[in-house]
Amino acid sequence: MLFGRFLKKRQQAAVEAKQAIASQTQEALAEQARHHADAAKRDEATRQLQNLPLLRQIRTDDPDSGVRETATTRYRDLLCDSACDIPLAVQLDELSRIDDLPLLETLAIQAHAAEIRRALIERIASPAVLAQCAVRDSLASNRGLAVERLQDRAALEQVLRQIGKKDKNVYRAAREKLRLIAEQDELPRRIGAQCEELCARVEHLGRLGNWGQDRALLEHLDRQWAAIQEHAEADWQARYQAGRERFLTAHDDFCREQAAQIAAQATQATSLAERQALLDELATATDLTDESGIAALCERLAARWKSLPALPEARQRPLDARYDALMRAADAVRQSFAERGQNAARLEKLTARAARLLDESRPLDHQDAQSLLERGRALANGLSDPDAAQPFLTLAERLESRLATQRRHAEQRLALLPERLAELETHLAAGELKKADPLYQSLQAGLDMIKASGLQQGAESDIARRLRALAPQLRELQHWRRWGADQHREGLCDDMEELITRELPLEALAERLHALQMDWKGLDKTGSPANQALWERFHAASDAVYARCRPFMQAQAVERESNRLAREQICQQIEDFLSKIDWERVDWKKILRAERETRQLWSGIGPTEGRHRKALERRFHQSLRQLDQRLDAERKRNQAHKHRLIEQVQALAEAPDLDAAIEQTKTLQREWRTTVPARQKDENRLWQSFRAACDAVFERRAVLHQAHANELKSNLATRETICAEARAFAASETDPKRLAAALHEFEERWRAAQSLPVPRQVAGQLTRQWQACRDDLEQRQRQSEDRQRQTALERLQRQAELCERFELSLLGKTTDLIDAETASQLWRAAQTQGESDLQQALAARFELALKAAQDPEQLAELRYRYAANGERRSQICLQLEIITGLSSPANLAQQRLEFQVARLAERMVEGEDDPLQGTTQLLHDWYLCGPAPQDASLLARFERVRQALTARTGEQAAQMRQD
């Protein structure tokens, strides 16, 4: 029975039990290994055991040491044997029960199963064994696990020596572990050196008065200190905090002084900024989509603009011009809204018309449809809201698709028209009215569709002309059909009468009888009825032929009876199945396949008697109709389930929680199944809808990922722009103040950009690039300051030499005489330096010399200073020699020592890196100290000091450029 598998209970298939010869043998061996009195017998049985738990018990409990050793060896060999048929799970469970470390280490190296070796690698701790596993294990993941567990330096070095190029991952892991161990050993010394350097640098902040640069440098130092603070000792932390607080206090004092200057400029800047803000807000008016909103915004901004105080003419004029331009732009946008409303109404009408065209089943008129599409798209492009144009655009795509399909079909039919027209001509020429009539109607319908599809004019005109010419022939054939049918019937009568006497096999005779009867009936169906005389003649001849075929007909009757019984059996099977099946638990695919097979079997059964055929057919189809109703109900239920899934997924496309929506979509995808399929195109359409809804959900994630990638790309471009601008500024600028201000500005921009995410793979490279740019700016600033300081000292030297020359001329201590008027002219021609205090001191010295030229008392004062300044210059030169590390005359050794201890301790013990920072004031004191006796040896010593300082400065600048 076809449906018998649905009615019987599922029985457990009998599994042929294998003869457990091996099991019985193992049981006997186990009994002998446990209980035999002879140790040799127990040893022999133990060598053949395959029971791991029993071997473990024997290796610990057997009284004979030889048996225990044999059990240990057998236990190890079974775990190391590739041909061992013990399940892997049993082996792993058994290994978890033993604690014999030497055995575990041996198995970690020799075990055949990779899973066993991995489990043992996770348990052992011997560096030597782990090193062997990392080098020799055949599985890469096991080698990686072994090297991951290694922490011993010697074992890691052994792995590096032995692994070579066999496993690059193991080699890299071992090398990285060795590097980390070396770094850990080096950490205390490195931390101490960093603490020393950072404390020295923070104590040096604020010495040159570069508060902005030093404040930014302090943040840089704080970041470096924070990285090592937890490793620094308490003394280092106290020293760093003391230096930091000292600088912050001095910096706060400087900021308060600067605040007073900034406040004066704030008022005008506030007014300018407010007007600029109004202009920026007015610029957004063109982005609004509400006409009333634009009007309200313009009125409010206009009132505020008029209420603000006027700026100077040079600044007010461009602002007013931009204000007028923005107002005109806002008015233009406001006027455009009215036009957009009218266009939206027109587009709505065209949308309704396009929907009506799509609902019509007749062919579309190409010219009218194209006109509608062109007008609709023009209106849609003018709308600002894409959602308002979407209904029309959706219908337009469908309309274009239908036009394209119709045109393609029209082109295909046009290409076939000549062939089909020739076929029509052939049928008409042959008098085949039955074939010619429907072909003519089809050709006429094709011409109508070609004309409506907008194909090139004239393409079908020749076909239409030829078709009109064939119409009279078609009508003539229709007149001749009736006459031809009577002629055909007479021929059938002659053929039937001939069969009465013709010698043929009964089967062939019966087939010929049936064929002639069918031909007679076929003529009746053509619409040409036969006359009574011909019918009686044909019927009498048929009865005579049937009498000859009666024996064959009786045999056919027996066969039909057998067929009837077979059909009744099939009907009974279906009815039994329908009465007993549980429709709540049924395999619909099997039901559908059985129904299809039943139909095939029914159609394969031969004919039955006419009196039974209709009843059996009715019974069969009634039973199948019940089955089909169940199938149809399940088909509809399955279709409804699929529609619900589509609706649920479509709703998830707008869900705020994207991750939850994606997980729910995956769950709904697993629920999609087909129990009873519908038509293939319907199933395909549903699947496409479901797939499109799922893709819409997943595309949201792709859009978010793309947006995140674009954000990372934008942030990366921002940081790269900062670095590029910093490099360009450092290469083009020489003013140290502007360099300091630019460095502060770039650092602020970098800190703001640093909080924005960038691709991880370039973050480290960007940080290093920015560090290089900042170091370049700092180096450029220091070089510029050094050049300015050197230039200032050179100008100071020239001015001091002029004062010295004039003073010595007044005192008569030189042959190079100069009068007061000439000295004044030379002084005015000399350039002034930027340090106001030093300039005033030099000017005071020169004014004193001018007064001494006219006042004897001032001249006496000048002579007194002349006598005292010699000793002062000697002391200054000695201090400069100490700072620069140059030697002094032997007779000044004691004085040099006293200066080092008493006066220069604070300056030189602080560890200043730059000699100019400690010598600048001494050089200023030298040039301000005058007049003084012209001691050639002292002047030579001072010149040597000055040249050493110049060379030292050049070396530092070269070193910074190299760094």
Whole-angstrom Rg: 55 Å
Number of strand elements: 0
Number of helices: 36
Q: Helicity, in percent?
A: over 70%
Structural class: mainly alpha
Main beta sheet: strand number and arrangement? none
Instruction: Based on Cα principal axes, name the global outline.
Output: flat
Enumerate the spans where pLDDT stays under 50 for 5 or more consecutive residues.
1-21, 907-915
How would you state the average pLDDT, rounded? 75
Quaternary state of the chains: single chain
Distance between the termini: 95 Å
Give the amount of beta strand, in percent.
under 5%
Pfam family, one: DUF349
InterPro entries: DUF349
Structure write-up:
Pfam families: DUF349 (PF03993). The chain has 963 residues and is mainly α. Among the domains are: 310-459, no CATH class; 485-636, no CATH class; 816-825 and 836-962, no CATH class. 81% of the residues lie in helices and 0% in strands. The protein has 36 helices and no strands. Helix 8 (114-121) runs parallel beside helix 10 (140-149) and helix 11 (153-163) crosses helix 12. It is flat and about 180 Å long. The two termini are 95 Å apart. 20% of the residues are buried. Residues 1-21 and 907-915 have low confidence and may be disordered.
